[in-house]
Write a structure and sequence with these properties.
Blueprint: E1 2-8, H1 15-27, E2 32-37, H2 52-63, E3 69-71, H3 74-78, H4 84-94, E4 99-105, H5 106-111, H6 118-124, E5 126-131, H7 149-157, E6 160-161, H8 169-177, H9 188-197
Parallel strand pairs: 1-2, 1-4, 2-3, 4-5, 5-6
Length: about 200
C-alpha cells in the first residue's frame, strides 16, 4: 500500500487540510491518507488546543464518505509531545511492507532539519512536499544532508501542486471566538459541531 501520513493539530480541521490531502492522494497515487492529530505539538503551548476527543470527532466528521481517508489516534493514544519520527516508526513497525509518505507543505520542508531525528524521518517515509501557486518551488537542498541524491530526486519527482486556499486554523478559532460565520471554511458538519460544543468561545 502507498500510505500517506498527515500530521498536525487540526484545531479545527478546515478545507485547506482536506484539499492538501486530496491533492496528495491523487497526484502521488496514494491508497490511503491518515490524518494523525497531535497530542501535544512540539511548537505549541500545552493547554491551548481543543480536546483530543473533539479534534478526532471533527476530523471524522470532515472526512466522512471519503473511502481513502482515515483518522489515526496513534499520537493521542501515545500522549505527551508528538514527534513525527516516533509516529512514523510506529507505523513502519505495524506496516513494514507499505510505502510510506509524509505529507508536508513547502514551508515545513525548510524547517525539517530542525526536527527530532530528521534523517530517520526521511528514512522511514518519503517527504511528499506540497507547492502552492505563486510561491517559489521548494528548495530541496535542505535535504542534502538527510537523504541520498537518488532519494532527493524521488522527492522532486513527487512534488504535489495544490490550488491556493487562504485558510488557517488560527483564523477559524478567532472567528468562532468572535461569533462569526465559519461557513465554507470547514465542512458544514464540523461547523455545526463547533457551534453545538461552543468550541473556542
Amino acid at each position: 500500500m502507498r500510505l500517506g501520513i498527515y500530521g498536525g493539530s487540526f484545531d479545527p480541521v478546515h478545507y485547506g487540510h482536506l484539499l492538501l490531502a486530496e491533492c496528495c492522494r491523487e497526484q502521488a497515487n496514494l491508497d490511503e491518507v491518515w490524518f494523525v492529530p497531535a497530542a501535544t505539538p512540539p511548537h505549541k503551548q500545552p493547554g491551548r488546543l481543543a480536546s483530543p476527543a473533539a479534534r478526532i470527532e471533527m476530523l471524522q466528521l470532515a472526512i466522512g464518505g471519503h473511502a481513502a481517508f482515515r483518522v489515526s489516534s496513534l499520537e493521542i493514544d501515545r500522549g505527551g509531545v508528538s514527534y513525527t519520527v516516533d509516529t512514523l516508526a510506529a507505523v513502519r513497525e505495524a506496516r513494514p511492507d507499505d510505502d510510506l509518505f509524509f505529507l508536508m507543505g513547502a514551508d515545513s520542508l525548510a524547517d525539517l532539519p530542525t526536527w527530532r531525528e530528521p534523517q530517520r524521518v526521511c528514512q522511514l517515509a518519503t517527504p511528499l512536499v506540497v507547492c502552492r501557486p505563486g510561491s517559489p518551488r521548494p528548495d530541496l537542498s535542505v535535504l542534502s544532508e538527510l537523504m541520498e541524491a537518488d532519494e532527493i530526486a524521488r522527492v522532486e519527482r513527487s512534488l504535489v501542486d495544490m490550488p491556493q486556499i487562504g485558510l488557517s486554523s488560527t483564523e477559524l478559532r478567532e472567528r468562532a471566538a468572535a461569533g462569526h460565520s465559519l461557513r465554507f471554511r470547514t465542512p458544514r458538519a464540523v461547523e455545526a459541531y463547533i457551534e453545538a460544543q461552543r468550541l473556542y468561545r
